[in-house]
Design goal:
This protein is mainly β. It is 9% helix and 68% strand.
């Protein structure tokens, strides 16, 4: 966890020093639920809290910070719990009325895996740095632009077998600053 905080602090300081901040501040807060498909029968349910904390270069480019927690089982039936954080830069396209936003992007994350092996009765811990690629995302704003529904498909790549997954998520968020 300390390594993840260090990576995010380093990223923030580099962007701050480069002067690319177009608007730091809390833009929205969201919660998502979904499914990670690691292999054919190896899936995890996960929960994510995320916030868009700044615009970079232009109002269309956002910095999203998120924390996640997931549970599931691998192909051998071993229980797995994953806790992680990520920082993603995403680009938004809006319709003419600015009520629907498509987005894509990518970034870095840090995950910690915990496995329970029942036969030797042991717990294993693994950590991994992951790459996040948002393949397709969609936000639909409602209630005068203050509430948004989210749909997202993300590819998460890591060096550990269980760190790589195709992630599908839906969520609900509250918009604090309109895009």
């Amino acid at each position: 966890m300390r390594g993840c905080v260090a990576v995010l602090a380093c990223l923030t300081s580099v962007l701050w020093a480069a002067g690319v901040w177009a608007g730091p501040g809390l833009h929205d807060v969201s919660a998502k639920v979904g499914l990670d498909v690691v292999e054919a029968n190896d899936t995890r349910h996960f929960y994510v809290l995320q916030a868009d904390v700044a615009t970079l270069f232009s109002p269309k480019v956002r910095l999203e910070l998120s924390g996640e927690m997931g549970r599931g089982a691998d192909l051998n039936g071993t229980d797995i719990e994953v806790v992680g954080v990520s920082g993603v830069v995403k680009y938004l396209w809006a319709n003419k009325r600015r009520t629907v936003f498509a987005f894509t992007g990518g970034g870095l994350g840090f995950s910690r895996f915990q496995r329970w092996r029942t036969i030797p009765n042991e717990v294993y811990h693994e950590t991994d740095i992951t790459l996040h690629y948002i393949l397709v995302g969609l936000e639909r704003h409602a209630f005068k632009g203050r509430v948004k529904g989210i749909f997202e498909v993300r590819l998460v790549l890591g060096s550990e077998e269980d760190a790589s997954a195709l992630r599908t998520a839906v969520g609900l968020g509250f918009v604090l600053k309109k895009p």
